[in-house]
Amino acid sequence: MIVMLRRRRIFKGLCIAIYCVFSLCAVSCGKEITGNLEREHLFFIKYGNFEDQLDLFQLASSYIRPDSQLAMDDGIFYLSNSSAGKIMRLTSFGDLLALYYNPEKNPQPTFVDADQTDKITTRMAVPYPLNHPTYLAITPSKHLFAVDTVNEERIEYDQTENLALRDTVIHFNEAGEFVDTVGQEGAGGTPFPPIEGLYADSNGGLIVVCRTATGIRVYWYDNTGSLLYKIPIAFSGLPSPYTNEVKGFSSLDKAVPDFTAKKLYIKVDYYREDIDAETNVSAGISYDKSCLYTFNIEEQRYERTIDIAPYEDTEDTSTGVRHVKKVYGLLGVTANNWCFLTTPRSDGYMLELIDLHSNKIYTRVLSVSAEELVYNAFNLSSDGILSALLAGDTQAEIVWWKTNEITGVSKNE
């Protein structure tokens, strides 16, 4: 009897010890167990060419795929309809507040009465010759900036990079009035190389991120439109986490600005050469890991590095289950320094959130059905709300995921 009691005590103690080891591992690894992040439906948008509809798949467009984008600011949504040459401003219920539109591509909005131009209305129509609006940014003073393309006669050519300069940024004030266009030097400047990101900081400054064949160029303007910094980031000069003995290859995923400081967050993906064990020759390259670098613009130096492990997923194949490493893509960094990354999976997306203060990691599933994957566009607000345009075959849906239970309240709220 005494022996049995001792065995039970030993077994109970062993279970407690094992539990403590696993608990300690979970804490020390700094990664929380995955769960679903609650998704909130906001509204649907029908397809069509009316003012409150999305012409997502215009057959007459010279672009092979839609590249409409969205931005959310204080619960108000801005949606660019690239192929239709228009931008919609909507409430979180889907009510149209303003329409910036190219009259040559769109019918006159039904709420505009040509005979009663002084009639008071809750909706605003702004005619402007938009060609192909994509990325959007809204300043704290509610100025709207939109990436567009210049007319054919205004396209310039960069002899050094061997590329056409056709992108520009359109500026509208809080009243919806056109202010100017922004180019490389500032207002009215030279068109940009291909723009892949547009952002506004807490001071009303504008940040334009461009990609060329040799690197990333970041243009940082103050709230008057004056160019503060032009930051070239060459692909050939990216930092490496490897020693000289390791043959690695790097790929710059994305560069995004800090919301309050003159800093950039640069995510780089790294691939290593695979050596065949039997022949000792190269068997190709495979993805290894990613790093997030903080770059201080004023001091022109990298300040810190965070390693980002791949997402370990499984895929069913004819020969069985295959384990795959998936690369996270950088969405952005919030005002209170949380990094958001996503990668696709069978039921939507895996979201990884990294607290840049403590390096603690959380992962959550963003549920998106297969029918909603015709086209997706995401936007991360400075206070950590992740919004998305989910396009299906017959209509599009606007949704958001709130992360404040994880990330806390932004210092800007």
Give a structural overview.
This protein is mainly β and 413 residues long. Among the domains are: 63-237; 240-308, no CATH class. It is built from 2 helices and 31 strands. It has a 5-stranded mixed β-sheet with strand order 1-28-27-26-25, with no helix packed on it. The longest helix has 28 residues, at 2-29.
List keywords for this structure.
single chain; 413 residues; mainly beta; five-stranded mixed beta sheet; 2 helices; 6-blade_b-propeller_TolB-like; LIC12708-like
Instruction: Write down the Rg.
Output: 25 Å
- Share of residues in helices: under 10%
Summed up, the helix count is 2
Tell me the overall shape. Answer: globular
Mean pLDDT: 88
Kindly estimate the percentage of residues that lie in beta strands according to DSSP.
over 45%
Q: Termini distance?
A: 64 Å
Largest sheet: 5 strands, mixed
The side-by-side strand order for the widest beta sheet comes to: 1-28-27-26-25
User: pLDDT below 50 for ≥5 consecutive residues: which ranges?
Assistant: 1-29
* Count of distinct strands: 31
Category by helix and strand content: mainly beta
InterPro entries: 6-blade_b-propeller_TolB-like, LIC12708-like
Provide a quick synopsis of the model.
With 413 residues, this protein is mainly beta. The protein has helices at residues 2-29, 404-407; strands at 35-36, 39-46, 70-73, 76-81, 86-90, 96-101, 124-127, 136-138, 144-149, 156-158, 163-165, 167-172, 178-183, 186-187, 195-200, 206-211, 215-221, 227-234, 248-257, 263-275, 282-296, 301-308, 311-317, 320-326, 329-333, 338-345, 348-355, 361-367, 375-380, 385-391, 395-402.
